[in-house]
Structure prediction request, 480 residues.
Amino acid sequence: MSDKTSNTPEPAGTGPEALLTFGWEEWVSLPDLGLPAIRAKVDTGARTSALHAADIEVFGSASKPRVRFAVYPIPGREDLMIPCSAPIVDRRDVTSSNGETESRYVIASKLNVGGHAWDIEITLTDRGTMSNRMLLGRQALKDHVNIVPSERFHQPELDFDVYHTPKVRSIAPNRALRVAVLSRENNYSTNRLVEEGEKRGHSVEVIDTTRCYMAINAMAPEVYYDGKRLPRYDAVIPRIGASITPYGTAIVRQFESIGTFVVNGSAGITSSRDKLHAHQILARHRIGMPPTAFANSPKDTSNLIGLVGTAPLIVKLLESTQGKGVVLAETKKAAESVIDAFRGLKANFLVQDFVKEAAGEDIRCLVVNGKVVASMKRTGSEGDFRSNLHRGGTAQKVRISKEERETAARAARVFGLGFAGVDMLRSNSGPKVLEVNSSPGLEGIEIASGKNIAGLLYDAIEEKVRPTPVPRRKKQPKAN
Prediction:
């Protein structure tokens, strides 16, 4: 007795020789591609099955190439598009009924008809002029189907209405995505985003933001890189450094104008990076933060300090990152000296109250898609009030309160950031937000929390780029 089993399920209550009956047209589904209903023409004169596909693009490694493409399952509905991807099985020449030969990519998929399913090969081609978006050739029908060529719809009929309901999101498979990471650095965070994405079967490309350039026009906005137009990405993960914020956010805006899903939008990156603007946004939404003051004239130094409170005070450059340009002034005299020095350098800065009870510690919360997914407590090195890990601070996992969790989530939300690091101090009057970071590092928080933060980000991306229901078209009233 052989221990091999067939990949083809047997119809319920029948033997292995039982066949389905097909007419010349049948409703089928391709669940592997996220196509729950498609009308197929049955053609035994054709050897190979074919699927109408647009925007066909190869991606992935040379050893395991994949193809991505768009399917418009309902003829005449160009507003309803299902994005698909699959491994490439083969590439072969196919001759059509009119004698034209075309080189096509071949993929494999499960064909589902009336509760019966089996694997078939499908070629990808343009069938835009055809009333049936799929053709079933004899290879797919062999050993499974009896044909009645004069009839149609012997199998249960499906309905295109499924594409107009939320169900279309739940049946979409985890297709391979093409993702761009906008980053100039070869660091832990960038490498983790590439590693995690490729582990999930996605194609992840690291793009140096400063080497991108744009074609800005109304009809066909594009982004170019090293002389070539960049492909259409499913998602872009911006990792924009502080030194290139204006140009980096311009590139992000360009992707937004193309219609690409961007994890953090240009407006959120810009406003969170501008510390003065960021504090104004936090204050407007009544999110707790240390008392903060800003002035331009040197005549206002004393009043500026008085608005914040008594010494010690924090004087912080607006362009500071990773704890650089942040000074603790122990006395009012010291604060005046630091402010005068910054003004002499024509630098913009904030003056902030020093939260003594924080004792050189802060909380970093990682927010993904509006939810706090991890948190850590950062402690400054001995003698340093700054807790930044880049300055020798240490990190450990911490349990946060409900109020801290809600504050962090709100802070990320008011900036419209899908992926953010929110830094807070624990004070006697509740959590105080110090900063909302649109490019948070992954190394410290992944090690401290033991969580796969990169994976949680890809979970959110995969959810966001799933197909969405398309509204039904209103029926036109009949003419009198």
The chain has eleven helices and 28 strands.
